Amino acid sequence: MAIDQRLRVTLPGNHRNNGVIAGLDALELAAGEPTASRAWRLWTATWPKVAAVALALFLWQAVVWSGWRPPYALPGPDAVFPELARLVGGVDFWRSIATTLRRAALGFGAATVIGLVIGVATARLRPLRTAIGSMITGLQTMPSIAWFPLAILLFKLSESAMFFVVILGAAPSIANGVIGGVDYVPPILRRVGRNLGASGLTLYRYVIMPASLPSIVGGLKQGWAFAWRSLMAGELLVIIASTPSIGVKLDTARQLNQATGLLAWMIVILVIGILVDILFGRANTAIRRRWGVVDPAA
Amino acid sequence: MTTTELDRRAGRATDPLPARPAVALHEVSKVYGRGSQALLAVDRLSLEVQAGEFVCLVGASGCGKSTLLSMISGLEPVSGGSITIDGGHRPAQMFQESALFPWLTVRGNVELALRLRGVARKDRESEARELLASVHLADFADKRPHELSGGMRQRVALARTLAQRTPVLLMDEPFGALDAMTRDMLHDEIERICRERALTVVFVTHNVREASRLGDRIVLLSSRPGRVVAEYPVDIPRPRRIDSAEIAALSATVTDRLREEVRRHGH
After folding, report:
1. Is A76 exposed, middle or buried (0-12, 13-18, 19+ CB in 10 A)?
2. Among A131, A265, A18, CA closest to B133
3. Residue from B4, B109, B112 to probe the interface with A (highest A Cβ count within 10 Å)
4. In angstroms, rounded to a whole number, what is the distance separating the alpha carbons of residues B63 and B66?
5. Interface predicted TM-score (ipTM) of this complex, two decimals
6. Mean per-residue pLDDT of chain A
């Protein structure tokens, strides 16, 4: 057959080509990015943080030294850290943190599920988008503490009241992250997905949701910040004294005029917030590295 | 589920009867907008592509080349006329940008195409390996798209397109953004792969030399609206070189006609 003959004629040329192709490929990839040693990377990532903490502690101490407030109202780091060390040794400390973190995880988890569902539905259905698109952003600007009076009316002084506010605080950010992500999926990727035979929910599962992942993680990160703030406000307003939590500890310290304990607990809140933020930061960096949106020169 | 869909899922290759063209466009039109704002992009265009044929569509900007491909692949509806694909498979399409999924590895991109075709999990890995080997990228299966050069990305896109195992392949200026040497290599590759697999190809390009290098036939389209104005069978024996005298001569003929077509819009 004519085609077979052509094929035979073409083949020797292609053998020569294989070498050229391999050569081109090798040249393209030769310029790999130099990788710094692990210790060096750890150092460059750590010293600015250590310096920032040192600076903050110094400023705090400077204010104490200035005598602006008496030490029983504003104790210095030298008084607060021993108190913190004493607290860390007790079972109550960990039980309180466990209670608060359990609430945070449950509330944030529920907010994530609700935010994802609302986000996908709103991104997919145009009328729904017109109806509640701007309302979602509106909800985001609502200070979460303003929900508490209503929450307490609806759920009394209970954990449900806290969850109500945590979810209302976090879910809109998560939904907005999803909507933003879906909006910015390059049309060409949708076209490829459809051409590959995906449509409807399959297209969402294999193309649109993965393509939206960076924005979704951004939404989750923002949602977490709202959830954590709402929860702290909630634990201070909805005091369930029988269950020790970070909020209860903070409130008790204030009532007993224990400034050292109060500041120690505030440091705990700050540290938890920072640790979770680092987790989201890690996720974000991992995604950017996988996608190749990290500038190797930077 | 329709029969077509069943066929596609089963990955069944149909043997087209010689009498029936692989792709038949009958009086296809495409209108964008409506009323006084309406823009006629493609006007009653008819075209038949035989099974195993490599047809290059050439035209200046605004000839609706890309629109035409999207209509053939079913991504855009036609405004009038009909498009018949023999066997009913929705043809696989390749784009100017590789449009690889950045969250998947090279292998992952190919395997997703296999998965969406309905290939069982256990068969995906070996088939993906085979496809990547056929575009000389077996060693790069675990790389991410951003780690590859433009030419390599287009080869991955080709492997992903082949994974759909459709008898007809649509290509929308797939080598437009590549350097000359890489493009020459890919011309040889695409020619080999299409012959080996007996594929029918509709290849859109604005590069007349590329069309002469690859095509069995060149179809020249007019601009605004797109319409077939001339056809050129390419009788140059293969293997061809893009810098050969025959290709230069044919390119000159087609280019002259194309310029004439463009000139019409100048006043």
Report:
1. middle
2. A18
3. B112
4. 8
5. 0.86
6. 88
